[in-house]
Fold this sequence. Notes:
- The protein is mainly β.
- The strands form 3 sheets. A 5-stranded antiparallel beta sheet has the order 4-5-12-10-7, with no helix packed on it. Strands 9-8-6-11 form a 4-stranded antiparallel beta sheet, with no helix packed on it.
- The protein contains no helices and 12 strands.
Amino acid sequence: MKKYRIKLNNKVYEVEIEEVIGGASEAATTIIQERPVQASSLAQSLTGVTMEAPMAGSILSIAVNVGDIVKKDQVLLILEAMKMENEICSPVDGKILSIGVVKGDSVNAGHVLVQIG
C-alpha cells in the first residue's frame, strides 16, 4: 500500500493506493481511500516537502545550500518578523532540492522558502 498527499482546489487529501492482482482476468485494480488532511505551512508533494513562510518577514540568514543533506529539526534559515528572529527548521530528513529566497529578501506568508526531497 502506498500513501500520497494530493492538493486539489486548495484542499489537501491523503490517499492510499493498493494494487490488487488476481481473479480470472489477472487485471489490476486500484482501491483509493480518501481522507481530508489539514493544510499547513508544510505542503507534501510527490517530489518532496515544500517549506513555505509561515508569516511575512525578511530573510536574515540561510544555513543550507542546494544539495545539502539535512536532518529533521535542523535550522534551515532565520526569518525576521515583528522584530523577532524565527528559526525555520526542517520537518523531515532529506536533501535540499531548491532554495527560493536569498539573504535580505522580504517574503509574504506562503512564499516558498525551501524544497526538501
